[in-house]
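stage 2 :: seqdesign
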């Protein structure tokens, strides 16, 4: 094996490694890498869309995420509504043969309404020919607490309930399923 001899300082040094000779036998991609043509690093986005299947998968994930965000804004739960600085969340459920209504109140700001809350509950009767239907009225009092929960039973059974909340002269209407 013959090497290239060079003089470094006072000594003669023999180099057996020749980079130029090694690169002359290298494949084309290695030559491109050393010339700087391959110097661009791929980023996160390029790796996510490197192939057609990865690009399609990435597009599907973006579309599903966008759909979920749009649906959450457009289909906000009807059981959450606000009135006079208070947010109300309603839930109806069955327990041991009785139907119960749970009302959760959360004050949105410091000037939220406190005082009487009238609640009227009726079964949801779609296109019913009945002239009389049962209405249960409950009177509650909202205090200064930032969060409160009220529970009471209703004297009838139904798959859905229509609930009206009245604070001062403001009304809220809820239609909620019984779970």
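stage 2 :: out
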């Amino acid at each position: 094996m013959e090497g290239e001899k060079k003089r470094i300082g006072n000594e003669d040094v023999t180099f057996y490694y020749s980079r130029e000779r090694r690169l002359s036998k290298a494949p084309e991609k290695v030559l491109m890498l050393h010339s700087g043509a391959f110097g661009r690093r791929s980023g996160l986005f390029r790796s996510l869309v490197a192939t057609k299947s990865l690009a399609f998968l990435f597009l599907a994930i973006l579309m599903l995420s966008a759909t979920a965000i749009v649906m959450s804004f457009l289909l906000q739960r009807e059981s959450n509504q606000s009135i006079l600085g208070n947010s109300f969340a309603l839930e109806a459920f069955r327990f041991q043969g009785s139907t119960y209504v749970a009302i959760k109140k959360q004050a949105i700001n410091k000037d939220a309404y406190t005082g009487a809350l009238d609640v009227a509950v009726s079964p949801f009767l779609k296109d019913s020919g009945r002239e009389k239907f049962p209405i249960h009225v409950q009177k509650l009092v909202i205090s200064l607490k930032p969060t409160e929960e009220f529970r009471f039973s209703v004297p009838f059974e139904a798959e859905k309930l229509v609930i009206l909340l009245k604070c001062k002269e403001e009304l809220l209407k809820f239609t909620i399923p019984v779970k």
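stage 3 :: structure notes
- The mean pLDDT is 84.
- The chain is about 25% helix and 40% strand.
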